[in-house]
Amino acid sequence: TVRIDTLGLTSRAQIDEISPEVDPQTRTQLIKIGLPAIEGLQPGYFGWLEQACGQHEALLIPVSSVEHIGQLEVVKVWSEGRELMRHIRTGKTFGEKIEVISGLHAGETVIINSQQAQ
Fold first, then answer.
1. Which of 10, 13, 22, 54 maximizes the CB count within 10 A of its CB?
2. Which part of the chain is the Multidrug resistance protein MdtA-like C-terminal permuted SH3 domain (predicted)?
3. What 3-state class would DSSP assign to 41?
């Protein structure tokens, strides 16, 4: 999938060629893709290529449930009849959801709004 923010467009693309060389300074690699005819697309436009490289399961929670205290990321969870604060480490953001890498387990109840706990 290719995303061209300038046009507000997302489109499927075919990868035609992947360069075996990676620039060690920029950590970039040349990938040539084929796109369908797109109205308004001009040479030199910048875009993003998203290519699935495998699958893994991830624990996702609402971005709005994560609080930042200095450099720490915390969420409130409901456990044993009370509200607890839990330090977490997050990963990628997917729209309104964010991946939790550590500090939280599947099945735990995350409090999105403190009023819900009462």
1. 13
2. 58-114
3. coil
